[in-house]
């Protein structure tokens, strides 16, 4: 029995090591930090920023102390930090559900499609919406043919709640929580891309499995950025831009499961 447990542990360690290596080599984590001119388009962000600030303040006022108190028994000296990360994650989840479903969904879709048009992948976008004549990528976007981004499903909520107890494990648990969230956030960022491609569920799963490391690294970076109070709304757009830039690179064949386009790191440094 002991040998079997040891064998399983070794296999799991090797799997995690391979995933981490693929994630690091992919460079996909750089996409969320890239800046696109698409974001200079006039966006009505004031109501959303107000919502983000309100949700974050509410969560810290009413949930931080109770959670920090409980974590003091499990996390010791890092309880305050772990509780803060947990509350930020909870605030981000509440904010995401409200804002992406009711306030900025259309703006995110336009941003994603606009970036694809600007990267000369108009044919891909034309499968999901009408394309008009014009010079500006956003101005070219016509009426949607298909409704894109998936709503926050009960399954996603249940999975999120199941992961929450990991935060009671000092440091390691918080890291695991972020990584597990990132594994789901990565593929979710490309839901519009899959729809434009017209892929079946089987095709999507095959693609996601092939790019598992890259999606994990992208998702972790995106999750961490969206944990930033209030500014998470801005990062929701930059993450969408990053996802679209990655989709464009995939379409142009300049990225593989084990590495991004040669100019990505240079462009990311310029964006900084």
Report the average pLDDT across residues.
77
Which strand order spans the largest sheet, edge to edge or round the barrel? 1-2
Q: How many strands, which pairing sense, and closed or not: the largest β-sheet?
A: 2 strands, antiparallel
As residue ranges, the low-confidence spans are 36-44
How would you name the oligomeric state of the polypeptide chains in this document?
Answer: single chain
Rg calc: 20 Å
Share in helix? 55-70%
What is the CA-CA span between the terminal residues? 52 Å
So how many helices? 12
What sort of overall outline do the alpha carbons produce when their principal axes are compared? globular
Total beta strands: 2
Strand content: under 5%
Secondary-structure class? mainly alpha
Pattern of helices and strands: HHHHHEEHHHHHHH
Describe the 3D structure.
The protein has 272 residues and is an all-alpha fold. It has helices at residues 2-26, 46-74, 79-102, 105-118, 122-125, 154-163, 172-188, 191-197, 201-210, 212-225, 232-251, 264-271, and strands at 129-131, 141-144. The chain is built from twelve helices and two strands. Strands 1-2 form a two-stranded antiparallel sheet. α1 crosses α10, α2 (46-74) runs antiparallel to α3 (79-102) and α7 crosses α10 (212-225). The longest helix is centred in the first third of the chain and has 29 residues, at 46-74. Mean pLDDT is 77; it is low at 36-44.
């Amino acid at each position: 029995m002991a040998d079997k447990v040891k064998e399983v542990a070794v296999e799991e360690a090797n799997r995690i090591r391979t995933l981490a290596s693929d994630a690091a080599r992919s460079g996909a984590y750089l996409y969320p930090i890239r800046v696109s001119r698409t974001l200079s388009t006039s966006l009505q962000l004031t109501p959303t920023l107000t919502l983000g600030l309100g949700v974050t303040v509410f969560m810290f006022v009413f949930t931080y102390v109770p959670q920090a108190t409980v974590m003091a028994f499990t996390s010791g000296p890092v309880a305050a930090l772990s509780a803060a990360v947990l509350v930020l994650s909870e605030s981000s989840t509440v904010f995401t559900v409200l804002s992406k479903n009711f306030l900025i969904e259309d703006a995110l879709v336009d941003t994603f499609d606009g970036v694809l048009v600007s990267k000369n992948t108009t044919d891909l976008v034309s499968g999901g919406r009408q394309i008009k004549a014009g010079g500006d990528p956003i101005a070219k976007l016509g009426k949607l043919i298909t409704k894109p981004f998936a709503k926050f499903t009960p399954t996603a909520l249940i999975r999120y709640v199941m992961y929450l107890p990991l935060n009671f494990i000092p440091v390691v648990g918080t890291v695991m929580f972020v990584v597990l969230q990132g594994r789901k956030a990565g593929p979710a960022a490309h839901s519009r891309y899959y729809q434009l491609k017209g892929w079946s569920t089987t095709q999507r799963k095959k693609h996601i499995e092939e790019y598992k490391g890259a999606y994990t690294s992208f998702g972790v970076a995106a999750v961490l950025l969206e944990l930033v109070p209030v500014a998470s709304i801005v990062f929701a757009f930059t993450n969408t831009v990053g996802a679209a830039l990655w989709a464009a690179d995939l379409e142009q064949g300049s990225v593989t499961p084990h590495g991004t386009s040669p100019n990505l790191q240079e462009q990311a440094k310029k964006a900084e």
